[in-house]
Amino acid sequence: MTARMRLHPEAIGVGMTSQRVRDRLIERLRDNGIADERVLNAVRTVPRHLFVDEALATRAYEDTALPIGHGQTISQPWVVAKMTEALFANGAQPKKVLEVGTGSGYQAAILAALGLEVHTVERIGELLRTARKRFRALGFNIRSKHDDGRIGWPENGPFDGIVVTAAAPALVDALTAQLAPGGTLVAPVGGSGAQSLLCLRRDADGVVDQANLAPVVFVPLLSGLVD
Ligand code: SAH
Q1: pLDDT tens profile 76-130
Q2: Which CATH fold topology does 66-216 show?
Q3: What is the pTM of this model?
Q4: PROSITE patterns recorded for this chain (predicted)?
Q5: How far is the CA of 38 from the centre of ligand 1 (A)?
Q6: Residue 52 Cβ < 6 Å to ligand 1
Q7: Which of 222, 223, 225, 226 to mutate to test the pocket of ligand 1 (most atoms within 8 A of CB)?
Q8: If you write DSSP's letter for every residue of the chain in order, what string do you get?
Q9: Measured in angstroms, how far is the CA atom of residue 2 from the centroid of ligand 1?
């Protein structure tokens, strides 16, 4: 057996998590309309394979949602990129953002990689604890709390951007109320099965603009805390 054959594929850079595989995902996102280079760069640098179970790591750079336990999923990279890009649309320069539904922590990490001050809320304690370990291991300084994200985080608002990563039948007023003037909220809205990814931007007087970005499928936004 040659030395090369004894090396783990990761070590010689041909593994399913290698930079080449990650770059292929970036090209795919670009082909599917993600144009903001800052966002593409964040997706390129944040190691998505560390946000899923080791058994799924080889699939981490496919453009697909993957299970993270507790019946939840890490969002599809295209959806993460689309939501993130929406916060920067029209020359917006967000600083402080809120995510509802930490899950694996991947979306929060992407936002932090863009230099944003990230707040994230998760109702399932075990998912939050695992996400916090990832933030620490990767050096991300992200504020998080175990709570029902439908109330937002009023003490720390208002936010320049709010990203809701679980679907509700309608926009949640308490969250819209925590948007700063000029801020953008992105949220999947609709019943189980399929939803619309809504984007709304508000100015000092209220909502000025609402757009439907894409059809999406998210897990539901639920009430009540789970350990
Ligand atoms: N942004 C996540 C996606 C996770 S899936 C990621 O990048 O991995 C959606 C998450 O929202 C789940 O973890 C689910 O537990 C959480 N969630 C659902 N309803 C919630 C609520 N009311 N408050 C906070 N989190 C909620």
Answers
A1: 999 999 999 999 998 999 999 999 999 999 999 999 999 999 999 999 999 999 9
A2: Rossmann fold (3.40.50)
A3: 0.93
A4: PCMT
A5: 24
A6: no
A7: 222
A8: --HHHHS-GGGGT-STTSHHHHHHHHHHHHHTT---HHHHHHHHHS-GGGGS-GGGGGGTTSSS-EEEETTEEEPPHHHHHHHHHHHTGGG----EEEEE--TTSHHHHHHHHTT-EEEEEESBHHHHHHHHHHHHHHT---EEEES-GGG--GGG--EEEEEE-SBBSS--HHHHTTEEEEEEEEEEESSSS-EEEEEEEEETTEEEEEEEEEEE--PBP--S-B-
A9: 47
Q: Which atom of ligand 1 is nearest to the CA of 107?
A: 7
Residue segments in the chain with a per-residue pLDDT below the cut of 50: 1-4, 10-13
Q: Where are the domains of the chain?
A: 66-216
**Looking at ligand 1, which atom is closest to the CA of residue 103?**
13
